[in-house]
């Protein structure tokens, strides 16, 4: 769906970063509505000077300070009057990484009825008091929404769908100060508006001043939560009936939220140090059981895949217990990955099939492309085998997922994140960078079982477990550009350790000018056949929890 979006910036005495923020937003093609919320000098004059309707910047001044929420509401109403369908709320203090605007807008375009909100990824500059206060608010929000799906309700960097937002503003009494951001999230959630979170880097600039009034705003937040809890109890049947569904079958893999957190992994790491791997697994069982019971979409996709795999093996349909084991297998895989980076010597034995060819390649100083998958634990093999082959193994990872992943890995192995390449789609500049790395003798790992984030037809539908599935052409196009050897890498858990299998795929891929699509489809079919072979060894180690056979362009079949 085509959306028409603008940006709204509420400001009260913030002006030093505004010029750069406005320029960045205009660079994304957004018209800007800047609300001066009763600022004094010199901010008043500086903000007024930005008014340039002919350049897509409108400044509206509120003579009496209404608070952040009041300013945002004034901006939302003005955006609606001007015919915009969506509005991007951006704080005026420069804390948010505006490079994420493109990610927010593309997600809003794909899900026009959803509220798309940033989910802060903080660096060391964040005050600890802010983190504690946010967690306290999160707990209240979970109570008020009867859901854990609201991962962050206080981020002032989000895209509002204006039609349902205006319906709330026209019929509900919403807080006008720092209580606005969390309250509007709850009110929209109660009306069935889905909430999608996008990780966004947040910094606290040196010299940054806050309009948060410790006493006044904490009183307002307390009153707000009391009001919302009471309202929720009074409207309980309606709240339960209208809650938005979880991310369903039509979600592209890249938009499926990660149901975990950095702090959760840190807790597991602490338990691991105290109780070891058995203690961690004991802790994971009740956590995984809860998420399995409450995640209908994940449960459906898990059982759907297992049914397909069982049919290929001549086995009966999977049970509810099989789906729970599937989810638990994923949790253990995540634990093993974290341990592999933090304490690789404790991950158990790792057997390697086909290592001779890779050893020769490493000895010759040649680069290579490794096509991996979300079957088994390719990341564990990267953590363990990079040292064995004395090679940098760079992995391409979707930008949205890479931010939080890098933060987790950097906390235990600072150098590992340096070899995680964040991409949304592989453009010319990325291809040049990858080719240069290969020419230096580095190895590149790319997933062969995920379709492009920016769909543009570069997939081939080929047989996989008895049905046609979409496989990306990207790995083979990239291999042709780099002119390097291509290997398949599979890493599956066996007993107390893992077995890594390297399979030569092509010494060099050359694509013909005529019949290129047919050649790419043949390569994708070869890969799908090998993926299926390894997948049937242990289907519970398959970690694509979405409708794998859906058409990435038209949705689920």
Describe the structure in your own words:
The chain is of the alpha/beta class and 557 residues long. The chain is built from 18 helices and 16 strands. The strands form three sheets. A seven-stranded mixed sheet has the order 3-2-1-4-6-5-7, sandwiched between helices. The protein has a seven-stranded mixed sheet with strand order 8-16-15-9-12-10-11, sandwiched between helices. Strands 13-14 form a two-stranded antiparallel sheet. It is globular and about 75 Å long. It is found in: Cell inner membrane.
**Main sheet overview:** 7 strands, mixed
Report the helical percentage.
Answer: 40-55%
Q: What is the terminal-to-terminal distance?
A: 20 Å
Total helical segments: 18
Question: What class do helices, strands and sheet pairing give?
Answer: alpha/beta
Strand order of the largest sheet: 3-2-1-4-6-5-7
Radius of gyration equals: 25 Å
Average residue-wise pLDDT: 84
Number of beta strands: 16
Key phrases:
557 residues; seven-stranded mixed beta sheet; 46% helix; globular; glycosyltransferase; LipA_acyltrans; glycosyltransferase activity; membrane; cell inner membrane
């Amino acid at each position: 769906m085509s959306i028409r979006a603008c940006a709204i910036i509420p400001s009260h005495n913030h002006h030093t970063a505004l010029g750069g923020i406005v320029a960045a937003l205009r660079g994304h093609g957004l018209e800007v509505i800047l609300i001066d919320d009763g600022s004094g000098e010199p901010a008043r004059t500086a903000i007024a000077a930005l008014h340039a309707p002919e350049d897509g910047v409108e400044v509206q001044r509120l003579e009496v300070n209404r608070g952040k929420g009041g300013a945002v509401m004034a901006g939302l109403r003005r955006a609606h009057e001007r015919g915009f369908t969506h509005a991007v709320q951006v704080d005026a203090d420069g804390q948010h990484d505006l490079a994420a605007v493109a990610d927010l807008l593309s997600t809003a375009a794909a899900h026009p009825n959803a509220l798309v909100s940033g989910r802060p990824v903080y660096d060391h500059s964040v005050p600890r008091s802010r983190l504690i206060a946010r967690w306290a608010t999160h707990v209240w929000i979970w109570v008020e929404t009867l859901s854990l799906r609201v991962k962050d309700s206080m981020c002032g960097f989000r895209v509002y769908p204006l039609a349902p937002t205006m319906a709330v503003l026209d019929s509900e009494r919403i807080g006008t100060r720092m209580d606005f951001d969390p309250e509007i999230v709850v009110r929209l959630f109660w009306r069935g508006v889905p909430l999608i979170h996008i990780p966004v880097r947040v910094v606290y600039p040196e010299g940054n001043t806050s309009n948060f009034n410790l006493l006044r705003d904490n009183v307002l937040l307390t009153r707000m939560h009391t009001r919302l809890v009471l309202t929720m109890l009074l409207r309980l049947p309606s709240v339960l009936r209208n809650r938005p569904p979880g991310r369903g079958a039509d979600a592209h893999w890249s938009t499926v939220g990660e149901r975990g957190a950095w702090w959760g992994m840190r807790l597991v790491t602490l338990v691991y140090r105290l109780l070891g791997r058995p203690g961690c697994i004991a802790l994971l069982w009740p956590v995984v059981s809860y998420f399995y019971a409450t995640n209908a979409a994940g449960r459906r996709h898990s059982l759907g895949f297992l049914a397909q795999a069982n049919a290929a093996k001549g086995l009966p349909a999977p049970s509810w217990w099989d789906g729970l084991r599937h989810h638990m297998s994923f949790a253990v895989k995540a634990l093993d990955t974290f341990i592999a980076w933090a304490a690789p010597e404790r991950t158990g034995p790792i057997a390697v099939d086909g290592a001779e060819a890779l050893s020769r390649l490493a000895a010759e100083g040649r680069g290579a492309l490794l096509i991996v998958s979300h079957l088994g634990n390719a990341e564990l093999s990267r953590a363990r085998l990079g040292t064995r082959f004395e090679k940098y193994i760079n992995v391409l990872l979707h930008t949205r997922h890479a931010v939080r992943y890098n933060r987790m890995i950097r906390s235990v192995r600072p150098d590992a994140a340096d070899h995680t390449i964040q991409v949304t789609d592989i453009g010319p500049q990325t291809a040049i960078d990858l080719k240069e790395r290969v020419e230096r003798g580095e190895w590149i790992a790319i997933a062969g079982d995920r379709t492009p984030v920016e769909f543009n037809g570069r997939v081939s539908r080929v047989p996989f477990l008895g049905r046609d599935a979409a496989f990306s052409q990207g790995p083979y196009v990239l291999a042709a550009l780099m002119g390097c050897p291509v290997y398949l890498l599979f890493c599956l858990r066996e007993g107390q350790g893992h077995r890594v299998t390297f399979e030569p795929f092509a010494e060099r891929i050359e694509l013909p000018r005529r019949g290129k699509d047919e050649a790419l489809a043949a390569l994708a079919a070869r890969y799908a056949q090998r993926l299926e072979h390894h997948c049937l060894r242990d289907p519970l180690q398959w970690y694509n929890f979405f409708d794998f056979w859906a058409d990435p362009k038209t949705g689920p079949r």
